[in-house]
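Margin note from the TA: students keep mixing up input and output lines. Inputs are the sequences; the output is the structure of the whole complex. Example:
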Amino acid sequence: MTALLPLPVAIPLVVCAALLATAHLLPGRVPDILAMLAALAVAFLSAVIAVQAADGPLVYWFGGWEPRDGVHLGIGFSVDAASGWIAAFIGLLYALTFVFAWGFFDRTHGHFHILMLLFLAAMVGFCFTRDMFNLFVWFEVMSVAAFALTAYHLAESSLSGAINFTVVNSLAGFLMLGGIGLIYAQTGTLDFDGIAAAVAQGGRNPVVAGAFCLVAAALMIKGAIVPFQFWLADAHAVAPSPVSVIFSGSMVSLGLFGLAKVSAVVFGGSDQVQGALPMLLIGLGSVTALLGGWMALLQRHLKRMLAFSTISHAGIMLTGLGALSIGGTGGMLVYVVGHGLVKGALFMIAGILLATQASIDEIALRGLGRGIWPAGIAMALAGLLLCGLPLGTLDQGTRLVQGALSQQGHGIALAATAIGAALTGAAVLRAAGRIFLGLGPDPGDEAGAPSADEREKANRPLWLMLAPCCVLLAVDVALPASLIAHGLPRAVSAFMHRPEGGSLAEGPGWLPWVSVAAALAGAGYGLFRKHLPAFVVRPVRATQSAPTRALEILHSGLIGDYAAWLAVGVAVIAAVLAMV
Amino acid sequence: MSAVTSVLPYAVAAWLFGVGLYGIATSRNFIHLVGCLGVCQAATYVLLLGLGYRWGSIAPIFYDHPPGTPAVDPVMQALVLTDIVVGATLTALLLVLTVQAYKRGGSLDPEKLRPMRAGGKSGRDQGSSRVSEGGQQAP
C-alpha cells in the first residue's frame, strides 16, 4: 500500500513531461483531457491513501533508505489522513479548474497545462513530505510555477503583479532555507520526527527559536498574513481566472497548512515556540481577518476584491491554528477545504463575467449580468456561504474554529472571525446585487479603488463554465458533516502527533447568523446608500473615508514598500518569540 | 579558532540579507532590484556554508582520503547547490518578466509600473490597444 504514496506526485510530473515533449503534435483538446485525467487520478489516489491512513500514517522511504539506529539519511513521504484528504481536495479543485479552462488557452502548446500540472505535483508533495528540505523544494517548485502562471497574459499589470509576487515569495524562500539550515545545524537531521525528538530534548534554545521564526515567516508570506499580505492582492487580481481559482483555493491555505504541520510536528517539543504561538497566531490572524475584510469591501475590481477576501479568510484560519488544540487545527483543516470550494467557485464566476461580459469591474458591470442570471444565483449563494450561512463544509470549519477560540476565551479573536467573514460576504453580495440586479447606481468609496480591465476569451458556452462552479458549491453544501465530525478527531491527532482528546467543541450557534445579518446589512448599505436617511449615511462616510484612503495608500503596489513590511513582520515574529 | 571567526559567517550573512533587503526597498530600477535579490540570496549561501564548515577538515570527497577523515558537512553543500539552482531559475524568470514589462510599459522604474492604481481607467475607457495585446499568447 505504501508503494502508492509517490504516485500522486509522480503522475502529474510524468504527464507534465510527456505534454512538454509532445504537446505541439497533439490535436486540439487532448492536453485538456490528459491534464484533467491526471488531476482526477491524483484526487482518487490521494483519497485512497487517506482512507488507508485512517488507522495511522503511511510512510514511504525513497530508494528504501529507511532510518537506522535513529539516523535519518533518506527522504520520506509520510501521509496521515488529514494530509491525504487535503491532497484529494486539491486534485478535485484542479480537475474542475481544467474543465473551467476548457479550450481557454488555445495555441499555447499546452504550456498552461504543463505549468498547472507542475504546480499540482508540488502542492501534493508539499502535503506529503516528512523532510524539511524536501518541504522547501516543493515550496519553491510551487512558487516558480505560480510566478509563471501569474504573468501568463503578459499584459502590463499582470507583469508588474507577477514581479511583486516573485520578489516577495523568493525572499520567503530564502528565509525558509536559512531557517532550515539553522535547525539542521542544531539537530543534525532534516526529518520531521528526527528534528522533533532533538528539539524536545534540547530545552530553551535561541537557534531553534530563530529557525522557527524564519520558517514561520516564510510560510506566513505564502499564507498572506498581515504584514506580508501585499503581494497577494497584486498577484491574484491579475492572474488569469482559472489560475486565481487555484491560488486562492489552495495555494494560500497550503502555506498555513504547512505552518500547522511544522509548528505542531517539528517544533512541537519547544516550549518557547509553543508559548509564543497563541499570541502570535491569534493576534496576527485577527488583524488579518479584519484588514482583509475591510479592504475587500472597498474594491471595485472583482478579482482584487476576492483576493482581499482570501486574505481575510486566511486570517480566520490562522486564528484556528493559534488555538493550538485538536479542535482549532481540525477546524482550520475543514475550513481550508470549505473555503477553497467556495472561493474557487467565486473566482470562476469572475471568470465567467470576464468571458461573457468582457469586464471585471463591478461598477462598469452594473446590471449587465441579467442575461446570465444562473451565475448570479451561484454568486449570491457563494457570498452567503462565505459570510457564514450555517450550511456545508465552510460553516462546519467556521464553527469548529470559533468553538476552539471561545473555549479558550479569546473573545476578540472570536469577534474578528465573525466580522471578517461578514465583511467579505458583504463585499461579494454587494457585487452580486449590483451586477446581476442592477442595484446601487451610486458607488461609494469603492469608486476610488484601483481597477484595470482585461478580457478573457468568450469561446466557451456558459454551461461549461458554470458547471464546475456549481459542482464546487454542491460539494461544499453536500459533504456530509457527520462523516467529517466522525473522522476528524482521530485524523487531527495523527496530523499533530498528539493523543486524541475528547469531542470537538463548536462555537455559539447564533454567531454565524450574526455574520450573515451583518453581511446583508453591509451589502444593503452599499447598494441602497441613496435611499438611506442622511443621519445614517453621514457618520459612516465621515468615519470611513480617511482610514479607507490610508489603507489604499498602504497597498501601494511598490515592491520596495513590501520589502520593508516584510522586515517589520519578521521583526514582530522575532520579538514575540523573544518575549516568551 | 577564536570567537570572532566562529561568529563572522553569521554576521556576514545577516549583513548581506539586510543590505539586499535595503536595496530592494529603495530600488528604482528592476534590474538593480534583481541584483539586490541576488545579494539576499548570497546571504543564504554564506549562512549554510558557515553552518556546515568544520575547521581543519577536508572537502567531503573521499577519493584520495581514507574513509573516516573529518570532512565538512556534505548535506549543507547539497542544500547550497539546490539553492543556486533555485536562484538561477528565479533570476532568469525575473529578468524575462522585466524585459516584457519594459516592452509594454516603456520603463524599468517600479514606481511607473505599479500593478493597478486607484483611478486607473478600465479597459473600456482606454480603448482596446492593450487588451488585444494582452491576449492569450504563450509566455
